Structure formats: structure tokens, C-alpha cells
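Practice problem 4.
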């Protein structure tokens, strides 16, 4: 008996560590009255509707009158727009505010507190979910899910997995060579990036991230802009190494996504079974066709030129940024031409000022997509990619849509975002209500 109790207690402790369920909303029932709905799927607004939220779910969407008892919360929408919370599919929860040097040298407690402050702001910009594409975000995610810190839902990847010299290897030359038993690099100690140079090593690193609660796995399949030792043209992992990661992730019920710009790195990743490509800015026509034919996801963005400003003038990083940014237009054109399943994420790194213009990075997409297509991408479509995490999703339920049964992540906007998508560029003014998981984090209509 004592043994059984002991086992149960251990089991409970582990469960608590993996995903502590959030408390039910303090106000159990919310009624949004007289709202026009952008549902995250179709590109039009509905006629006026009433939407009932109970607990953390949308219970009813109807033209019928609904009455709630006085303990409930009534939001009189006045004909304004109710839409799903925005989703950013390429976010680095821990790396938005610090500089690269701070990230590698500052105390992890400090970095967590800074990231927590940023997480609140992220939610207040209307982003109710982020897919974290690398960084030690498990602790912050737990604190948010428990309600200790305010922030978005986080689909964590944990540490990015890279090769020696690859994108994510931030070591200095004096740290080479790495020998068996030598201490880990700072990036590894933080859990920001793990270095792996064989299929077996990749397998270990992937399984470690899954054990820690990763909802998907991120590898860097080619060179990157911000890394000191990885030219853009290189392909990093071998196909066997990539396949080891894919196998480990799929055995765990989830998928691998890779950072890749070039045709060679994208094609090798797809051959290895990778399901999603991050960025893809240097892809060619044949690669775009391959991505489309295989039903691979493309998670990409229009990098703002200012993002290059974090790199010193004359640096190789700056030169790489310029080369990548020049590919944006062609990448979106190819994505449209081949009808590639395209998700939106910003990849804002080391740029707190840019983060304040989060919505602007979304509305920029109207250069290639209609406002309605842009909004569908940032909600319902992004959520379809999140669903690839299967049972490893930390948040069982439907995200990115306004429909009965879906999780209640909702924004009330003062206007029609399809007619004027720029409303999302000023969330402080135009987002009147922000709800996540049935909890209201902002209600500017409350008297
Ligand atoms: Zn990234």
C-alpha cells in the first residue's frame, strides 16, 4: 500500500510538472451580445450574433437572445467585431527583449522575469497563442498556465537543436574542441540550443526536449542570419540525422520543423520526413513545388528591415540579413502560386521596440494577401499547424476559430478588421476585450 501511495505521489508530481491545468475562469459565464463574428475560417463578418462562453469554451453562437444570471459577465458588443485571438507561429518567448549578449551572459532568473514582462505585453497585443521556436520557455509557460504570470499560450520547442557550427551554435573559438565530458556551452546550459553531431546524439537531444514538454521539435537545417559561424548556403544536418529527429518526434506523436532558407536544406529536410519549414526565403521554383506537392507547411514572415539593425555595420550577420530579406517577395509569390500551406509568424528577436509593432508585422502581409486572407492565416490556418502537435498539444481543444466548442480565446475589436486591418496595429486603442481560456485580461468596455 505504502508503495502504491508512493508511486501515485510521484506520478502526481510529474503530472504537475508537465502541465498544471489552469484554474477555471473567475467569472464562469461571459455573454458577448450583438457582435459580428470573424470566425477565423471564412473571410467575411457574420450578421449580429450572441456568443456565450462557459468556462474556457465557446458554448453557443446564435442569433437567439441569451439571458445569463447576474453572476455572469455581459459584454455589450454594440455591433463590433469578435474574432479569435491572434497566433504567432514563430516566436522566441525568452529572446524578445534581451540583447544577444545579455541572452548568453545574464542570470537566467533575470531573463525569465524580463520574458514574463514581455509575455504580458504579447497577450495585450492580442496574441493569445505563440509557437515558441526555440529557447528555455518551459518555466515561463508553466507560470503562465498556472496563472502566476500573464501571457499567451505557449507551444514550446525547448532548445533548438543544431550541429557544431550551425545556426544556434554561439560558441567562441576558444571553446573548441568539445571533448567527451567537457562542460556544456552557455547556450546549452540555458536550454536555448543543443549541439548534436550524429543521429544518436540528435535522438538524445530530441527526446530530452520531449521529456521536458516540447509540443514540437525545432532543428536548424541550414545556415542562419544571427549565428556567427553558419554561412547561409550551408546545409547542416545530414539526412540520417534529420531522420533520427523525425523518428523520435513521430514516435512521441508530434513533428519536426526546421529552420531552412535554401533549396538544398529544404529538400533534404523534406526527404527526411520534416513536416514544416521555417522561413524558406531563398527557395526556388522547384522547391516551392515540392513543398506544395508533399503538403509541407511553410511558416514564414516578411522580416522588417529594422530587424537587421541589431547587427553591427559591416558584419557578416548584416550581410546575411540583407540577402535573406531580399527573398521575401519571391517567397510569398511562390507560396501563393503553388498554394503552399502557409502559416504566419514574426520571429522577432532581440528587439523590444519591434515587438511593440507586432500587429504591423502581420498587417504587412496585405502586400501579398487580402486583409481577410491575412486574418485567416493568423488565426484558423495557424491553428491547423498547431494541431500537428496532436496529443502533445499542451491545450487540448480547438484554437484559432470562433465556433461552438472551441477554446475561448477572443478579441473584441472596435471596428471591422477586414475593412481596416490596420486596427490591429494599435491594440491598446482598438482591442476592447482580450479573453484567453475564458479569462478576461482586458475589458475597456467595463464601466
Ligand atoms: Zn527563429
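Answer key:
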Amino acid at each position: 500500500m505504502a508503495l502504491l501511495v508512493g508511486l501515485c505521489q510521484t506520478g502526481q508530481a510529474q503530472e504537475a510538472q508537465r502541465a498544471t491545468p489552469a484554474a477555471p475562469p473567475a467569472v464562469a459565464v461571459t455573454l458577448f451580445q450583438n457582435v459580428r463574428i470573424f470566425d477565423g475560417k471564412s473571410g467575411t463578418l457574420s450578421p449580429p450574433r450572441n456568443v456565450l462562453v462557459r468556462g474556457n469554451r465557446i458554448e453557443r453562437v446564435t442569433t437567439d437572445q441569451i439571458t445569463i444570471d447576474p453572476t455572469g459577465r455581459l459584454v455589450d458588443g454594440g455591433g463590433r467585431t469578435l474574432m479569435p485571438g491572434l497566433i504567432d507561429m514563430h516566436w522566441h518567448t525568452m529572446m524578445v527583449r534581451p540583447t544577444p549578449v545579455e541572452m548568453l551572459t545574464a542570470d537566467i532568473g533575470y531573463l525569465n522575469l524580463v520574458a514574463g514582462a514581455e509575455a504580458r505585453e504579447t497577450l495585450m497585443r492580442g496574441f493569445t497563442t505563440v509557437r515558441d521556436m526555440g529557447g528555455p520557455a518551459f518555466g515561463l509557460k508553466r507560470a503562465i498556465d498556472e496563472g502566476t504570470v500573464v501571457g499567451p499560450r505557449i507551444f514550446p520547442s525547448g532548445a533548438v537543436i543544431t550541429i557544431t557550427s550551425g545556426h544556434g551554435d554561439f560558441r567562441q573559438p576558444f571553446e573548441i574542441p568539445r571533448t567527451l565530458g567537457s562542460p556544456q556551452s552557455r547556450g546549452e546550459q540555458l536550454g536555448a540550443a543543443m549541439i548534436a553531431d550524429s543521429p544518436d546524439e540528435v535522438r538524445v537531444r530530441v527526446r530530452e526536449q520531449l521529456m521536458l514538454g516540447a509540443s514540437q521539435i525545432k532543428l536548424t537545417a541550414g545556415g542562419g542570419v544571427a549565428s556567427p559561424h553558419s554561412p547561409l548556403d550551408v546545409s547542416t544536418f545530414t539526412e540520417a540525422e534529420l531522420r533520427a529527429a523525425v523518428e523520435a518526434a513521430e514516435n512521441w506523436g508530434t513533428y519536426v520543423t526546421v529552420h531552412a532558407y535554401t533549396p538544398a536544406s529544404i529538400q533534404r529536410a523534406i526527404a527526411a520526413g520534416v513536416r514544416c519549414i521555417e522561413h524558406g526565403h531563398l527557395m526556388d521554383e522547384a522547391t516551392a513545388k515540392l513543398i506544395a506537392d508533399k503538403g509541407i507547411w511553410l511558416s514564414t514572415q516578411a522580416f522588417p528591415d529594422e530587424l537587421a539593425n541589431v547587427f553591427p555595420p559591416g558584419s557578416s550577420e548584416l550581410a546575411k540579413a540583407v540577402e535573406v530579406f531580399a527573398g521575401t517577395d519571391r517567397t510569398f509569390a511562390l507560396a501563393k502560386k503553388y498554394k503552399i500551406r502557409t502559416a504566419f509568424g514574426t520571429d522577432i528577436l532581440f528587439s523590444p521596440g519591434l515587438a511593440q509593432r507586432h500587429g504591423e508585422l502581420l498587417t504587412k502581409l496585405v502586400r501579398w494577401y487580402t486583409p481577410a486572407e491575412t486574418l485567416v492565416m493568423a488565426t484558423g490556418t495557424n491553428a491547423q499547424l498547431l494541431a500537428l502537435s496532436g496529443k502533445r498539444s499542451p491545450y487540448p481543444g480547438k484554437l484559432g476559430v470562433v465556433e461552438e466548442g472551441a477554446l475561448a480565446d477572443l478579441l473584441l475589436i472596435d471596428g471591422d478588421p477586414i475593412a481596416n486591418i490596420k486596427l490591429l496595429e494599435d491594440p491598446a486603442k482598438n482591442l476592447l476585450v482580450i479573453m484567453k481560456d475564458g479569462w478576461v485580461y482586458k475589458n475597456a468596455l467595463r464601466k
